[in-house]
Write a structure and sequence with these properties.
The complex is a heterodimer of chains A (310) and B (330).
Chain A lengths: L3 E9 L5 E10 L4 E5 L6 H8 L7 E6 L2 E2 L5 H8 L2 E4 L3 H4 L6 H11 L7 H11 L16 H13 L5 E5 L7 H18 L2 E6 L2 H7 L2 E6 L2 E7 H6 L4 H8 L36 H5 L12 E2 L11
Parallel strand pairs in A: 3-8, 3-9, 6-7, 7-8
Antiparallel strand pairs in A: 1-2, 1-4, 4-5, 9-10, 10-11
Chain B lengths: L9 E10 L2 E11 L4 E5 L6 H8 L7 E9 L2 E2 L5 H10 L1 E4 L13 H11 L6 H14 L5 H5 L8 H13 L5 E5 L7 H18 L2 E6 L2 H7 L2 E6 L2 E7 H4 L6 H8 L50 E4 L2 E3 L14
Parallel strand pairs in B: 3-8, 3-9, 6-7, 7-8
Antiparallel strand pairs in B: 1-2, 1-4, 4-5, 9-10, 10-12, 11-12
The chains are: A alpha/beta (310), B alpha/beta (330).
Chain lengths: 310, 330
């Protein structure tokens, strides 16, 4: 059974932007699933809905079998201990006036830990993420960017979550330090069976870390499948272009015309047809579904081989 | 400014920049030939941006600068501020990371591009200037230049705004473009377009490019000469193809080893332990990378290594450089 199951969620903001359009995805226990896409694709809005920081207009988010729309108050809090956010920026992730130990302790108090047990737990968590517990009394500005991001992970881990939601959690880090955090996330999955929903614009990082990947474009999932499969044999023209645009990779470059369209004024039909090098007339009229249904590797393209009825 | 044929376009000699106790750039020397490309590769705090901005004489507030920078033989530090303002824009075009910092949100795109031409007297006639603005916007790949010229910055996407800034940078056909992380704020598909644009402009205009980036992929993509900086110093330099496939300096090797790459699925990445030292704590009498370096020996903490030849056109500042052709991360 899925640990997290997102079913057909949509969200339109007050300014008319349909940020998330009928998105479904699932994360099994111990699985690392990536959501990848460029700015405005709806990946962060999807994360906010999953974390119940934003109500979807339609659709359901279930965590461990509970429909999050029905859970409130104390029950929501105890459920939240099991899915925790690792935020983007290490600089804003932590309160600059709180020592890193106090930041972790605060999260434990919110989730009802007794004061007596907190100090040991704080040290245990710092140790888990490779930070010497003696650094617990330091302030965030006294630590490096990589250390602060690991503290943010320690804070998220403290409540014993089954799922970490990482929203661009390594994007702001220098590459030499980013590797430390990626190694840590891989180890947490391996040794503690923690599931991770990993949201990123960086395809190389997503391919490295994730079991499965969903590629989003203008609010919709256009392709999903095993990370290795998508990296080696991308099917959707957008995924192909995205992979070919990674600088320094030896793929032949597919240069897309223009910019992603304004999400407030998304094109009819397939949202990608205005930039797609392979678009035909039909693409402007009909929006393709993710096919084949229930297959491990699916894509939403009218011209894809998988779109041919079998 | 004119100079003999063999004079480099840009010559930085023993540049040092300090901000109070912080020593941001330490004894950096580099040269760039007319029409050539040098990529300065480094992580945050390496001094790469301060080096590039020093060429514009805009290193940042309260900076104290030593050394010499010559553009086509002309000593930039000897110019008065008025002459330097002419150099910026006319001889050197600048493309910053954030296009918003170079664009006035309250004025139309066309007016702002036109102003660059006007300030430097590049095109005197007003009507000709307007036509040149449209040409420049078309040159950087902006669809419908006439309409874009009438737009305000907020009406354009980030990628389009960066193109406008590039159009402003090349407006007076400068001999040098300095670009400081010009694609970092852009989406990857747009980044690819902008990198292609730099290459095209160089080919068509013969402009030299000094590009600062943290992205090994960008350096490899431009296939230029690369200068790797760490803690304010150049630790390695040479042709990108050689440096990024067979690095001589352990830091360069570490940067490459830390990159996720195909075939290593969720395997242990060779992360460099710790973090770079703060610019206030780097000492001159030691290799700044030694505390994080797997190859370091006691001598590394007692001597600051000089840049020494390690191959054709290559140099590394390391007492124990990695032998050529050794595998990355080995």
């Amino acid at each position: 059974m899925s640990l997290l199951s997102v079913e057909n969620i949509s969200k339109r903001y007050a300014n008319g932007v349909l940020a998330v359009d009928d998105v479904s995805l699932s994360v099994a226990p111990g699985e690392i699933v990536g959501i990848v896409g460029e700015s405005g694709c709806g990946k962060s809005t999807t994360a906010k809905i999953i974390l119940k920081r934003l109500e979807p207009d339609r659709g359901t988010v279930r965590f461990a079998g509970h429909d999050l729309a029905d859970v409130r108050g104390r029950r929501l809090r105890s459920l939240r201990a099991r899915f925790q956010l690792v935020p983007q920026s290490p600089q804003t992730a932590l309160d600059p006036r709180m020592t890193v130990g106090a930041a972790i302790a605060f999260n434990l108090r919110v989730h009802g830990w007794s004061r007596a047990k907190i100090p040991d737990r704080v040290d245990e968590m710092l140790d888990q993420v490779g930070i010497a517990p003696r650094l617990r009394d330091r302030y965030p500005h006294e630590l490096s960017g990589g250390q602060v991001q690991r503290v943010a992970i320690a804070r998220a881990l403290a409540t014993g979550p089954d799922l970490l939601v990482c929203d661009e959690a390594v994007s702001a880090l220098d590459k030499s330090v980013q590797a430390q955090v990626l190694n840590l996330l891989a180890r947490l999955q391996r040794e503690r069976g923690i599931a991770i929903l990993f949201i990123s614009h960086d395809l190389g990082v997503v391919e490295h870390l994730c079991d499965r990947v969903a590629v989003m474009y203008l609010g919709r999932v256009v392709e999903e499948g095993p990370a290795e499969e998508i990296w080696a044999r991308p099917r959707h023209p957008y995924t192909q272009a995205l992979l070919s645009a990674i600088p320094g990779e030896s793929r032949s470059r597919i240069v897309l015309a223009g910019d992603p369209p304004d999400p407030a004024d998304a094109p009819a039909g397939c949202a990608f047809h205005t930039r797609c090098p392979r678009a035909v007339e039909e693409c402007a009229r009909r929006r393709p579904d993710l096919l084949p249904l229930a297959a491990p590797h699916r894509d939403a393209c009218a011209l894809s081989t998988s779109a041919v009825p079998v | 400014m004119s100079a003999p044929e063999d004079t480099p376009l840009l010559e930085i000699e023993h540049l040092s920049v300090t901000f109070g106790a912080a020593h941001a750039v330490r004894d950096v020397s580099l040269r760039l030939d007319p029409g050539g490309t040098v990529v300065v590769l480094g992580e945050s705090g390496s001094g790469k941006s301060v080096t590039a901005r020093s060429v514009l004489r805009l290193p940042g507030r309260r900076a104290s600068v030593r050394g010499r920078i010559r553009l086509a033989g002309c000593d930039l530090f000897a110019l008065d501020e008025k002459a330097m303002r002419q150099v910026r824009g006319r001889d050197i075009g600048f493309v910053p990371q954030d296009p918003n910092s170079s664009l006035d949100p309250l004025r139309r795109i066309g007016t702002q591009v036109e102003e660059v031409l006007q300030v430097h007297g590049a095109v005197a006639d007003r009507r000709a200037r307007r036509a040149r603005v449209a040409e420049l916007l078309a040159l950087v790949g902006i669809p419908n230049p006439a309409r874009t010229a009438r737009s305000y910055p907020h009406e354009l996407s980030g990628g389009m705004r960066q193109r406008v800034v590039i159009a402003m940078a090349v407006a007076c056909a400068p001999r040098l473009i300095i670009a400081d992380e010009p694609t970092t704020a852009l989406d990857v598909t747009v980044q690819a377009q902008v990198l292609d644009l730099f290459t095209t402009l160089q080919r068509e205009l013969g402009t030299a490019l000094l590009l600062v980036t943290h992205d090994v992929g960008v350096a490899a993509e431009l296939a230029a000469d690369v200068v790797v900086m760490y803690a304010g110093r150049i630790v390695e330099r040479g042709p990108a193809a050689a440096v990024l496939t067979a690095p001589a300096h352990p830091y360069t090797a570490g940067l490459l080893g830390a990159r996720p790459r195909p075939g290593l699925r969720r395997g242990e990445l060779a992360a460099i332990p710790g973090g770079p030292p703060p610019a206030t704590e780097v000492v001159d009498a030691a290799c700044a990378f030694a505390p994080r370096c797997g190859r370091a020996e006691p001598a590394c903490s007692a001597t600051a290594p000089e840049l020494r030849d390690v191959g054709p056109g290559r140099a590394a500042a390391c007492l124990l450089p990695i032998a050529p052709l050794q595998e990355v991360g080995a």
